[in-house]
User: Fold this.
Amino acid sequence: MNLATAGNGTLLIIIVMALVTLATRLGGVFVMSFIPFNQRVHQFITAMSGSVLIAILTPMAVNGDIGARAALLTTALTMLVLKKQLPAITAGVLAAALSRYFFVS
Amino acid sequence: MGHNGILNGPYMYEPKRPMDTYAAQAKFEAADTWLGFKQLLPLSFFVGAFGLAFGLAASQEGLSDGAIALMSALVFAGTSQFAALDMWGTQVPLVPLMITTFAINARHLLMGATLYPWLRYLPPVKRYGLMLFASDANWAMAMQGFYRGERALGILFGGGLAIWSCWMLGTGVGLYFGSAIEDPFSIGLDMVLGCFLLAMALGGRKDSRTLIIWFVAGSSAMLAYWWLPTNSHVVVGALSGGLLGAFWMEKKVPEKNEPANNKQEQEQDKR
Assistant:
């Protein structure tokens, strides 16, 4: 089924997207309210919270261009040395911009 | 007991009595929202730049200004909005649109689940109301706060408001002055969120168990990225890491972690 983007179609598309996204925002909390909370569930949740970040980041680093890799490497090093987030992020973005300027024509 | 619990963090992480700790950290007052708003504001300006890029791209695709603003306001999930633009034409296929939106945003399900230990102490209206503004940055920062033993629901909600506001502001600026930033890629803006999430991950606990879980999560995410349908890698990676964590029983948190935690809190106070 296709939705035309003319007329009210765009509004309908936006509403569909909003509802699907809303379901993802509320769904995790809703499902968890049916699961008994014990040590194992606690450990699952703790391990998953870090794993989400790593799962987002790994393909970015492996398949990314030189700018993406430079950015992540710089952020990691700055974070390990300074242990402060804003300088680490700023340095990372700067590294992406500089490496793309010099190494990507 | 101070009202600005986010900065004071009087509750240490105690695996022995997790229920009490969660309940104490789950307090949520209006002042927390304001503190969370201020804490996420610097980063939100970067998010505003994403919004700008979206506003620009969407208007080039021929969407009306009203539709663009409405999409940013209601959907509030940048990557899926860009994906929708990719499908844009005179017609948009409904089922692929729903599947793509769901796949890209499925990580919210995991975020909700990770926040549940704290959210369960709130009445349903607050519990689900807080989740309306959940997005990567404020979720990651809130989780880090919780694991440090602080009250972080204010970071989740107030931070979410800051991000949403800047996202809207950025979208608006993109619509009218979009040509100011011609190529966000060349100045590295596409890497803001990646750098932020990495900084969050590295700010947390880093024992050998965590690192092995991360390695499994990263490898399975990569395998899914190569071999499974597009956008499944986040869910696959997160679930493999989570399952390993569930079945590999954790030893008691060593005492020597505590001074490090305190030091981090003091640094937090200085900012």
Remarks:
- The two ends of chain B are 22 Å apart (CA to CA).
- Residues 1-17, 254-271 of chain B have pLDDT under 50 and may be disordered.
- Residues 30-60 of chain B form the longest helix (31 residues).
- The first strand of chain B starts at residue 91 and ends at 93.
